[in-house]
Structures are given as C-alpha cells and as structure tokens.
Amino acid sequence: MSETPLDLQIKTLPNSPGVYQYLDAEGTIIYVGKAKNLKKRVSSYFNKTHDNGKTRVLVKNIESIKHIVVETETDALLLENNLIKKYKPRYNVLLKDDKSYPWICIKNERFPRIFPTRRIIKDGSQYFGPYTSMKTVSVLLDLIKGLYQLRTCTYDLAQEKIEADKYKVCLEYHIGNCKGPCEGLETEAHYHENIVAIKEILKGNFKDSIDVFREQMSIFAENMQFEEAQKIKEKIEVLENYQAKSTIINPRISNVDVFSIVSDDSYGYINFLQISYGSITRSHTLEIKKKLDEADKELLELAIIEIRQRFNSNSREIYVPFKVHLGDELKVTIPQLGDKKHILDLSIRNAKYYRMERFKQVRITDPDRHVKRIMAQMKTDLRLSVEPRHIECFDNSNIQGTNPVAACVVFKNGKPSKKDYRNFNIKTVVGADDFASMEEVVYRRYKRLLDENQPLPQLIIIDGGKGQLSSALKSLDDLELRGKIAIIGIAKRLEELFYPGDSIPLYLDKKSETLKIIQQLRNEAHRFGIEHHRNKRSKAALNTEMETIPGIGEKTIVDLLKAFKSAKRVAYAKLDELEAVIGVSRAEKIYNYYHKNED
C-alpha cells in the first residue's frame, strides 16, 4: 500500500520544538498545537484510538499538516497562543482577545498628568495595568489625588510658555489640589519626585512613600509647623489604611503571578492573581471552553501565556497548583505550606466562586447548557456509561408496621417530573419487611413500563443500603433488566453510595452537585411516600365507630371530621352544632348514638 501525502508529512517532521497546524480538505486551519517534539506529538494523533469523540472527528478531517520550528518550548507556547487568536481554529479552545480593560496613564509631558484610559497611544507615556475593573482604577486615582497635588489641565507647559505668562492658575490651585506649575509656582524636579512616588504606589510599593512622608512630618514638627505636620500625618494614615486592606500576605512576596484552575467536563476556569509587595494588584478569571477534552495542565499552560500577554506581566516567578512547562526563563513554584500556599488557596477559591457565579448565570440565561453540564458531571461522578437524563428513586414507608406503602419519584434532566411520580400499596408482603417490599415495587414498576412500552430510566436509586439494593436487583434479574439500567443504593447515615457486586461504597464530595441531586431525589421520595402513608392512615381512621352508625356514610364522616377536627369532638358535639354541618336527620342519628346510654 502506497503512502499518502499525509503519511509522508508526518514521517518527515523534525524532532524539534515547534507549532503544528492541521488543515482540512478546503485548506482551512482546524487545529493549532504546540510540541516539545513535533514528530512525536503529531504522530500520536494517528497511532492510537482516541476515547474522545471530537478528537476522532478532528483526525478524520485532517488532510495536511503545516509546522513551524522554534528555538524553545516557551517560543512554541507564545506562537501557539497568537495563531489560535489569529485563525480561531474550530477544534481549539477559544481565547478572546479583550482590548477594553482600563489602564492608568502617566502622560509623557513636562508635568505629567495621570488619568484613566482604555486606549494605549505609543507616545512615550507610561501605562499601568490593565486593571480588571474601573472601580479599582477609581480607588487608586482617588488615593493618589489625596496624597499628591497634580495638575489636571491639558495646557502645554513648555518652559518658554510659562516664562511668557501665557497661563493663569485655575480653581484647582485655589482649593489646594494643584501647586500651579502653569505659573512656575512648582518646579519640574519637585513634580517629578511625586511622579516617581506615584509609580511605586501603582506597583504596590507603599514603603518608600510612607518613609518620605514621615521624614516630612518630622521636619514640620521640628519647625513648629504643626498644622502642616498634621496634614502629612493624615496622608500617612491614608496610605497605611490602604496598604493594610490590600496586603493579604507577607510583604516580602513581590512581583509574583499566581495561577490556579478548576474545571468540569465542558469548561476550565483559570484564576490569576498578581502580587506586589504582599498586595493583590490584579485579579482576573478566564473561562475557557474545552474542545477536545483538554487536561487541566494543558488549559493552565495556555491560559498562563494568554493572561501574561494580556496583562503585560513581567513577573519572573509564578505559583501554580501542579507542575507546568513554560520554558527556563520563568521560575515555577508549587507551594506546599505557609504564605505562598495561602495565596494559592485564595486563587483556587476565587476560581471556584467564579465558576459558581457562572453556573447561576447560565442556569437563567442558558438552561440547556446548565442541564448538559449537570448530566455530564453526574455521568462522571457516578461512573455511568450514559448521562442519567431520566432517574427514578424508590423509598419504603411503614410507620410502626402499619399500612406499608412505597414511593417512586422521577427526575428528568435533573428536575422533578411530578406528573410521573407513583405511589404503591404493598400487596404481597405481610408485615414490615423493607427488603421484600422493595423487591415487589421495583418489579411492579418496571413490569408495567415494559408492558406499556414506556421509556426506562438510565438510573435507579434505592433509598437504603446493600439489603434494599440486593432486593431491587432480584426484580431487575426477573425482568432481564440487569445491566440495562444502572442502579445504586444510598445509605442514610453517611451518604454512602453502593453499587451491585461492590462491597466498598462510593463517597462523593459533600458539596458536589451530583450528591445534592441524589439527596434531593431521596428527600423527595421520602416526602412523597410519607404523604401517601399519612393519607392512607387518615382513610383508615375513618374506619371508626361512626362508620357503624346506621345511615351514616363516608362523606358524612369526612364532613364531620373537617368541621370538628376529631371523632372525639363529634361525640361531645351538641345537636344544633351537628345539624349545622350535616342536617337534621343525620344529626339526630349521630347525637342519639353517642347519647343513648344517658338518663
């Protein structure tokens, strides 16, 4: 068999780091990937059977391969990131290049202005950011405005124009917000001292500014200028308060990026914290939609490159929850304890909160996506072969051995389907035998569904431990349904999940959505069963002394119990009270019956 052009392309790939591009029959790039070794990585797509369906479809659509050799793995990461954003290949995760984040600009001027902007102009000005919210920018600018007197006008303050008295001070000077450089009332050197201090504050370094202010306060105090000293003291307090609020770890930890990831079957959520002098100067969470069941490591590496590019990060060290490969230029730390572990845990918590918020939003805006995610999660958590779109849960109810009943509740797409709920009166079991009762109701339920050609559930949940589960299995065996429907039992005390033939229970995370849905099913089955049991006992209670009274039927008894609340009150009721409820004739029968032995 002759080799195809694709086979030849794969065989002649170099054993070098680089980026590969898969093209379809139309020449469209459908996937971009990076590799330490191009030949090994690309060959792996064609040498094995892939579990993921989308990967199999991708490989089937590959008609040709392009590659770009680079010097290092870091270069490959950067190039992969840029090509994904440029071509947006169908099978790659989506990286949205958001240009709308706010920045703080220190304008390239003789007396620089400081202001927020969303546009970067390459004119020599300095930009700090981008920040993830305008609120952060406003807080920082308010802080700076309270500490330093800076101009806000747009005048061209060239030396010759100031010397020519071209400008006059404005209201900002008179209220103390500006020192009047437009009239030469402040030197360029002094103004730039403030700008240097402001740059340090924007980097998260408060120490230098606090030290300078303390020195100024001492000088004013020594010269008996107590009012000026008090103003400086207030500035120190403002800075220290801001520092105390923003510093959450050891101030010695500086110029570090922290990344963490939480994910599910469909999305990865990567949180980024930028740390400067112990303060969080930036926080951002990136949501990435999976395309080929990408692993957390792969998503995290891609996100780190994307986020550091997006936010112009030059940090030389990153904290991550597990080992990632980002080249030799970057120090990768996996914290185990102490302040470093504390800040990594904070990042993970931020990613989890973001994921929860997105779930709540999606539940409202895109219920189909929400259901799909929940079903996929349940399939994974419960080790099922299919998504449990249709679940049925059984519970027995017999209080003190009387009126044994059972309930079957039905959930479809993770929500109660109350029209499908069913109650069962136990027919073949004498006394309180939970195991035999469970065997009976499971058999009756699925015998009927089979007879009526109704759809069967993908999952059955038995409220009980191994005994009840074994009983339910007997019925499935009798109906030849063993293996066709997944079945598990849930023990009440420790929320243990039991599987057929497995003596070791499964324990789900107490906060997992899968366990919450199972608990909801169990609680709903219990509620529905108790309600039916209560109704049955109420009907049995009508089998009272009143039923033996000639000419008194069930409807009359119900009317009396509704009016008087108990049979005892009916017995002690006056004749006119009875007449008001059931009429003269029947009232006399009731009254005479209960008072026949009176003198």
UniProtKB/TrEMBL annotation:
PROSITE patterns: GIY_YIG, UVRC. Coiled coil: none annotated. GO terms for cellular component: cytoplasm; excinuclease repair complex. One of its GO terms (molecular function) is DNA binding. It comes from the Bacteria. One of its GO terms (biological process) is nucleotide-excision repair. InterPro entries: GIY-YIG_endonuc, GIY-YIG_endonuc_sf, GIY-YIG_UvrC_Cho, RuvA_2-like, UVR_dom_sf, UvrABC_protein_C, UvrC, UvrC_RNase_H_dom. It holds the Pfam family UvrC_RNaseH. Residues 15-93 form the GIY-YIG domain. Residues 262-476 form the UvrC family homology region profile domain. Interacts with UvrB in an incision complex. PANTHER family: UVRABC SYSTEM PROTEIN C, UVRC/OXIDOREDUCTASE. Belongs to the UvrC family. HAMAP family: UvrC. The UvrABC repair system catalyzes the recognition and processing of DNA lesions. UvrC both incises the 5' and 3' sides of the lesion. The N-terminal half is responsible for the 3' incision and the C-terminal half is responsible for the 5' incision. This is UvrABC system protein C.
